[in-house]
Amino acid sequence: MEGRFMTDTGKVRHHNEDAGGVFRNDSSQVLVLIADGMGGHQAGDVASQMTADSMQEKWRHVCVNSPAESEKWLGSVLKEINQDVFAYSLENEECRGMGTTIVTAVCSEEFITIGHVGDSRCYLYADGKLNQITEDHSLVNELVRSGEISKEDAKYHPRKNVVLKALGTEKLVKPDIQSIYWKKGDKLLLCSDGLTDKIDDDEMETYFMEFESIDALGKKLIDTANDRGGEDNISLVIMHHQQVEAGDSTC
């Protein structure tokens, strides 16, 4: 598996509140994540970096061999980190109200286990099609699901960036956890809303078809979002399922 984390501050904001990475544990298994610090909240960058650092540390000595093991670990860890971020915000007045979205995935050769809270997304590109795997925890997505507005209306809704759930804003959180299977040639995309607010799924799919290199693909996605205003930080992880490497094994 080959993976890249890419992030850009954008054209408007002065600092980057996103964090993320591609992390291998002691068994050469891969964890990827994107955390988008809450815009408009104090210390969003603190929340996102705390989350990324904690996920990386907790992953270091873990080994999972099945979707069930992976789902159990991921759900437990996200709840632990939520409590840590929430407690930190209470103990440090300058961080009151901070929070972060998160989308994260455990990637094995056979399966991917995805966990998310908020509106950062996960997509799978397989057989020439790009499919959104996660469901946004956002106001506009709830309005779409209830039939009050259309998907097209959601793109331009004045409150499209209002999230209904985030990591660290409340004492308890229930992340969405699921596992899917993938195969050689497939690509996984994790991204913040700085990307998906500027590029719709159909257009992203054409870029996945056009660019084989994940470096070129990531650059094209970020450049396009910036060309269209870049009002938000833009972050993504792309994983490419290639042939099994010598270091990729069960534990």
Automatic annotation (TrEMBL):
SUPFAM superfamilies: PP2C-like (SSF81606). InterPro entries: PP2C (IPR015655), PPM-type-like_dom_sf (IPR036457), PPM-type_phosphatase-like_dom (IPR001932). Pfam families: PP2C_2. It comes from the Bacteria. SMART domains: PP2C_SIG (SM00331), PP2Cc (SM00332). Residues 2-241 form the PPM-type phosphatase domain. PANTHER family: PROTEIN PHOSPHATASE. This is Stp1/IreP family PP2C-type Ser/Thr phosphatase. It comes from Tigheibacillus halophilus.
